[in-house]
Design brief:
The complex is a heterodimer. By secondary structure, chain A is mainly α. Chain A has one domain. In chain A, 62% of the residues lie in helices and 2% in strands. Chain A has helices at residues 19-41, 44-66, 77-87, 95-110, 123-134, 136-139, 165-170, 179-184, 196-208, 215-230, 238-247, 251-258, 269-289, 296-304, 307-339; strands at residues 3-6, 142-143, 161-162. Chain A starts with a strand and ends with a helix. Chain B is an alpha/beta fold. Chain B has a domain at 339-413. A six-stranded mixed sheet of chain B has the order 1-16-15-19-17-18, with helices on one face. The two termini of chain B are 40 Å apart. Classes of the chains: A mainly alpha, B alpha/beta. Strand 1 (3-6) of chain A pairs antiparallel with strand 20 of chain B.
């Protein structure tokens, strides 16, 4: 609840960053994330985004109306959820799938737990997981990039459904996508998650602005890389396995934009590393034993439920490190006193 | 050295122009309010002289209080202010014989060992770095210590009361450090200053006499990490100065240096005032603009706002800040971003302490070691929702300490 109050207690100096400015940072990078899908798939992408925004905002407003609270237009959290959902879905997906994902994210994952700041699960990931489980044939059918799709109705007669990198990996085959295509996103996949170079540039900006932290993405990448190195799914080498596991599916996107969501992630620095690592391992387990291609959100939701526990572990590690330091210190100083 | 974490915050310092202005002094004030306890040594309407013992055993440090001006004791009163609720003050009115003392008379004055012992034992000097009396520190190191660090760290914004003495009173500081070294028989003595002064144009000295000046380029709560241990003792610069002045003068030193700054002050400066001068007198000496919104006693990270201008300056007062605007913030609900956890210099979890404080869950608060909080204000500063985290954690800490003390007493009784 927004309220203006007179400041009578220290500190009398405050940082100029607000919740609005941090959410604004997230929104600033969204046009860049949508630029490449727009180039590959045409204006159908924009239509998906608009539908997602309308339904996210609408259900958010509805919930505030039902709760008899005041809807605050400067609260941009619903907008961020709305922009993240279409990025995880293929460009060819029907509008009603996005609609269901958006409404489910707000109505089920966000508001029953007490709206912004209290939701234990990432709303965007919940929305995605719901539609992925309910209509996997819609959510995991990807078209070739470079072929513009019809904006309304069916995607078009001559558009072919193609296999993705994650598909080939699942069948223990080596994908034939070139490194250049992987970086520029010129291969089949969900619309926002393929273009690695844009993702990294946006993450660089957000890291510089300290809107996201580095621990969680680092943990996810390390988790995936270690598992991929130890148990490669392809036979052409362990390092190639790391490369393809990291760049396929939504590993990078999920690590940078889903897992770093502040509300649901742990607060302690060590806990953040563990959290990321667990998401990485969980993603790999889903890839080994699951039937879905993009499975980071599922791992994310499971690890989300461990957040308070992980924070406890982080603090325990901290106090252990602290105690170890102190022990060493007292021994040293006692020796010094003897010598003197 | 204690463990100093790299957490904490970077602050804009706003030390100009107070830091580059010479230290002024006032002594012809109309009245002062001296802190007294039940163990008061003077009666009302008695004439007292500067340096006379007024009261013993002033809590919480059990120090003595001395008259800071010549005059007549008028009355004992209390202030209706949260911080001063339980404290009593003796009002002393001037008899008109107070004069500005020339500080240069201390130049090159030798002090003997017996003078130093007198100053330590009888002059009520308090070390503000760890809030202990200099006497108790001296007595806990009967064999002397290896290292002494003179704490001249002004890490809070606006405050420059210690560093300005290094700039403008080098001779006296050198003698004071010398006195501390002799008192503690220390091998190494260094002066610690805050290096990250940002906008300050004045260059910090690299040496005061033969004593090196070390700049601490750490993030904000620096002085809080200075806790004395077996090898090293941290002595506040003001304690060192009081020790030297008292030893040279053979009577208690009863002045203190405060920074007067803020955007509503016309001439920001460091000013030497008798202890007990009301902040209204000091502000009117420096000149303030017509509409003052907020007056803050102490630094702007750890101080508190006051609305009564009668409140006296005490030994521990670092600064008086006056701001034109009434400081207002829009506060939101916590979104759990965890920035408070990132900056906490004591590695606590302010986010969880806040949540469990709202739930009034004392067991959890104990497990989160909320009693370790040093009330530096980093979490409140960084919070994007502008929640008064410091206040919440402070309350929970108070409640927790109270409960812990009660438990201890219960176990003792059993």
């Amino acid at each position: 609840m927004k309220r203006i109050q007179k400041l009578t207690k220290a500190p009398f100096l405050r940082h100029d960053g607000t919740i609005r400015s941090f959410m604004g940072d997230m929104l600033v990078v969204m046009p860049f994330l949508y630029a490449m899908p727009l180039f590959f798939y045409g204006f159908r992408v924009i239509k998906s985004l608009l539908i997602s925004i309308i339904f996210c905002y609408g259900s958010d407003m509805l919930c505030y109306r039902v709760k008899k609270g005041k809807f605050d237009f400067s609260d941009m959290s619903a907008l961020i959820t709305a922009s993240l959902i279409p990025l995880m879905l293929p460009a060819s997906v029907e509008s009603w799938v996005i609609m269901v994902a958006a409404v489910f994210a707000i109505l089920v994952a966000k508001h029953p737990f007490g709206a912004l700041g209290n939701n234990p699960f990432n709303p965007a990931a919940v929305g995605f997981c719901f539609v992925a489980i309910s209509w996997p044939e819609k959510v995991f059918s990807f078209t070739k990039p470079g072929v513009w799709l019809n904006v309304f109705g069916k995607i078009g007669e001559d558009v072919k459904i193609v296999n993705t990198m994650a598909d080939s990996l699942m069948n223990n085959g080596r994908p034939f996508t070139k490194a250049m295509d992987i970086f520029s996103g010129n291969h089949a996949g969900a619309m926002g998650v393929t273009c690695i170079i844009v993702l990294l540039a946006c993450a660089g900006f957000l890291l510089y602005r300290k809107t996201i932290n580095y621990q969680i993405p680092l943990g996810v990448v390390v988790g995936i890389a270690v598992t991929a190195f130890l148990f490669p799914r392809i036979t052409t080498g362990r390092f190639e396995s790391i490369w393809f596991e990291l760049t396929s599916g939504m590993a990078i996107f999920g690590a940078l934009f889903l897992a770093t969501e502040p509300v649901t992630s742990p607060k302690h620095p060590y806990a953040k590393l563990i959290y990321g690592f667990l998401i990485g391992i969980g993603t790999m387990l889903f890839r080994f034993y699951g039937k879905m291609e993009n499975c980071l959100p599922f791992a994310l939701l499971i690890v989300n439920s461990l957040t308070p526990f992980l924070d406890k572990i982080g603090m325990a590690i901290d106090s252990y490190v602290d105690r170890g330091f102190r022990k060493e210190k007292t021994i040293k100083s006692a020796g010094g006193a003897k010598n003197a | 050295m204690q463990k100093v974490t790299n957490r904490g915050i970077h602050l804009s310092q706003f030390k100009e122009p107070a830091i580059s202005a010479p230290i002024k002094s006032i002594s012809n004030v109309n009245c002062v309010y001296l802190p007294v306890s039940d163990d008061i040594c003077v009666s009302v309407s008695q004439n007292i002289k500067k340096g006379d013992l007024v009261s013993n055993e002033i809590l919480p440090e059990h120090i003595a209080s001395f008259a800071s001006i010549n005059g007549k004791a008028v009355a004992v009163r209390k202030f209706n202010c949260e911080k001063f609720k339980d404290k009593m003050f003796l009002k002393v009115e001037t008899d008109g014989t107070n004069q500005n003392e020339n500080i240069d008379r201390f130049n090159g004055r030798e002090v003997t060992d017996s003078d130093l012992y007198f100053a330590v034992n009888c002059c009520g000097i308090i070390n503000l770095t760890d809030k202990k009396t200099l006497k108790s520190i001296y007595e806990s190191y009967p064999d002397g210590v290896k290292n002494v660090v003179i704490d001249a760290v002004d890490d809070e914004p606006y405050v420059s009361s210690k560093i300005s003495q290094l700039l403008f009173r080098k001779n006296q500081v050198e003698s004071a450090v010398d006195a501390v070294q002799r008192l503690f028989r220390a091998q190494n003595v260094e002066i610690a200053v805050y290096g990250k002064n940002g906008d300050v144009s004045i260059k910090l000295p690299s040496k005061i006499g033969k004593y090196p000046v070390t700049a601490y380029n750490k993030t904000y709560p620096v002085s809080r990490a200075m806790k004395s241990d077996e090898d090293t003792v941290y002595i506040c610069l003001s304690a060192a100065m009081s020790l030297y002045y008292a030893a040279a003068d053979k009577k208690a030193w009863t002045s203190t240096i405060v920074t007067v700054a803020g955007d509503a002050v016309l001439e920001p400066c460091n000013i030497e005032v008798p202890i007990g001068t009301s902040i209204g007198d000091i502000l009117s000496f420096c000149g303030v603009k017509k509409n003052v919104g907020t007056v803050v006693l102490g630094g702007c990270m750890t101080g508190y706002s006051v609305d009564i201008l009668d409140i006296p300056v005490l030994k521990s007062t670092k600064a008086i800040l006056a701001f034109e605007s009434e400081l207002k913030y829009t506060s939101d609900e916590c979104i759990g971003c965890g920035r408070c956890v990132d900056v906490c210099p004591e590695n606590l979890l302010p986010y969880y302490i806040y949540r469990y404080y709202l739930e009034d869950n004392k067991e959890r608060l104990y497990k989160l070691s909320a009693d370790k909080c040093i009330e530096c204000g980093c979490c409140s500063y960084i919070c994007p929702a502008k929640i008064d985290l410091r206040q919440y954690i402070r309350n929970s800490r108070r409640a927790l300490l109270k409960e812990m003390r009660q438990n201890e007493e219960d176990t003792k009784a059993n």
